[in-house]
Amino acid sequence: MVNALFFIYSWFLFAPLMLAATLLFGLLCFLLMPFLGPRRVARLTAVPWSRLGLMLSGVQVRLHGTEHLDPKQSYVIVANHLSQYDIWVLYGHLDKDFRWVMKHELRKVPVIGFSCALLGHIFIDRRDSRAAMASLETAKARLVDGTSILFFPEGTRSRDGELRPFKKGAFRMAQDLGLPLLPVTLTGTREVLPPDTLRLHPGPVALTVHAPVTVDGDDEAALEAALGRCRSAIAGVATEGCLELT
């Protein structure tokens, strides 16, 4: 009975409310951008939009390890990817200005794609490696005064919840720029919105921030070592996610 009522709520209240909120915050983003920088506009639009979506979904976010965040430090953030809800959790509760590296196809999503472009997020066309590299080169200039960049190094959502192999792009950027990596683990978001379904399941999720990892050297071995340390940190919580949510 409870599941049936929440299903009705999801389609007849949550969906229309979030559609209206998306249009409202998208318009606000467009109107404010000429007067305020991306950082302030994101705090006034994307952050409350994300928190509203989580609240209306019945999702409670539990934070761990936020003492590892330095507000003045720019990072290359690497996080596991389980669900479309990952972005709401990160945007709403990772207290950090960041630019998200996302698939080029998302630029075509009405309102959201346009707003992300205004806020300076990075669209990557995986079919065109030269254009992808040019996009990342442009992003480097934005990583100042605590502004960070966020990668999902698995490249796509995990369908089964298992951590996939990491691609090297994020780690190479950290190496090239001399920036610390910030590993982040998300747990519980796959249960809120499982793959290949639009049926929501309210419940707790956790966001765990790990100690920063530096790339100690300019060779491939140093890059691989940093990748391994980040993946081990993320996997250590991801495989024990049930403990983080209790």
From TrEMBL:
Residues 75-189 form the Phospholipid/glycerol acyltransferase domain. One of its GO terms (molecular function) is acyltransferase activity. InterPro entries: AGP_acyltrans (IPR004552), Plipid/glycerol_acylTrfase (IPR002123). CDD domains: LPLAT_AGPAT-like. Its EC number is 2.3.1.51. The chain crosses the membrane at residues 6-33. Keywords: Acyltransferase, Lipid biosynthesis, Lipid metabolism, Membrane, Phospholipid biosynthesis, Phospholipid metabolism, Transferase, Transmembrane, Transmembrane helix. Pathway: Phospholipid metabolism; CDP-diacylglycerol biosynthesis; CDP-diacylglycerol from sn-glycerol 3-phosphate: step 2/3; Lipid metabolism. It is an enzyme of class 2 (transferase). It catalyses: a 1-acyl-sn-glycero-3-phosphate + an acyl-CoA = a 1,2-diacyl-sn-glycero-3-phosphate + CoA. The HXXXXD motif is essential for acyltransferase activity and may constitute the binding site for the phosphate moiety of the glycerol-3-phosphate. Belongs to the 1-acyl-sn-glycerol-3-phosphate acyltransferase family. NCBIfam families: AGP_acyltrn. This is 1-acyl-sn-glycerol-3-phosphate acyltransferase. The lineage of its organism: Bacteria, Pseudomonadati, Pseudomonadota, Gammaproteobacteria, Oceanospirillales.
